[in-house]
Structure formats: C-alpha cells, structure tokens
Specification:
The protein is an alpha+beta fold. The protein is built from three helices and four strands.
C-alpha cells in the first residue's frame, strides 16, 4: 500500500464561504459612505445654481432697501422653471432661496429642501448683505428675514451649511 506524499490543493467549501462573507460585509460598509459622498456632491453642485440668482437679490435690496418677497418680485423665473440636474425648483421667499431636490438626486435627497437665506443688518440697507446656508447660524448683529426650511440630513450638508456649535458633524 503506497501513501501519497501530496495532498490535493485547494480551498474547502467552508473556507470559500468565510471569504465571501467577509467580502460581503466590507461591501455593505462601503455603500453608505458612497451614498453620502454622492449626495454631498449633488448638494454642492446644486448650490452653484444660486451663484447667478444671489446677485439679483442683492441688487434688488440695494435699489429698494428691502428684500424681494418672491421670485416674481425679484424678476426671477417661477420656482418650477429654476431647475437643475438634482433640483426641481428654487423658490425665493423674503430673501431666502429654498431648493427642492428631485430629478436625478440621490434617494436621501429626493423631495428634501435646503434653505440659503440672506442675512442683513436691520434698518441699515447700506450695510453688506451676507448669506447663510441650511443650519448655519446667523451672525451676531444680523437677521435672516425668512425661516430655515432645510430638511436635508446633516450628513449630506456641506460643512458651511451645518451648525457646528450644535454638534452638526
């Protein structure tokens, strides 16, 4: 009777299942990080839409001494006509823009709002106007005449749109 010195090489079924299980766990951990990353990028891209709209509000304020009440008052298209890849409308309300996400937006953004509000020095239309995004606090000595309607989750907001002092990580 001869004894073989060589054992067959290869992996057992149990070893293969363990490796596949580890790969599946790692993949599940990576998916939420990717979803948040793409959501943040979509929010950042959508905020760029305001770059051409904000100067119109600032010019209106300088000329009239008050913020425009709505899109029509500022001479902007209707909210449903201000759209982008991830935005289905931009509504102006008392100097604040409210972006509604939709179209090709990440599922966590769909039908959510992000507010970008004008902040002014009360009774001083000659003072410079600033802007705050989302949950970012209004600077001392300034007021935001419109409310913050942001419903986008903190994890999807850019850092400048969070209230870091209130624990917005």
């Amino acid at each position: 009777m001869s004894v073989s010195l060589f054992r067959p090489r290869g992996f057992t079924l149990l070893e293969m299942l363990v490796v596949l299980g580890i790969i599946a766990i790692l993949a599940l951990l990576a998916v939420p990080a990717h979803m948040n990353s793409s959501g943040k990028e979509q929010v950042e891209e959508s905020l760029k839409l305001l770059e051409i709209l904000r100067p119109k509000v600032e010019a209106y304020y300088a000329a009239n001494g008050r913020l425009p009440l709505d899109n029509a008052d500022a001479g902007l298209p209707a909210p449903e006509k201000l759209i982008g890849n991830y935005v289905t409308g931009i509504q102006l309300s008392s100097g604040g823009f409210h972006l509604r996400f939709g179209n090709k937006a990440n599922g966590a953004l769909r039908d959510r709002l992000l507010s970008v509000r004008a902040v002014i020095v009360p009774e001083s239309p000659g003072s410079p106007m600033s802007w705050v995004c989302g949950h970012s606090p209004v600077p001392a000595g300034m007021v935001a005449p419109t409310d913050n309607r942001t419903t986008v989750g903190l994890s999807l907001l850019p850092v400048h749109c969070r209230d870091i002092g209130a624990g917005g990580k």
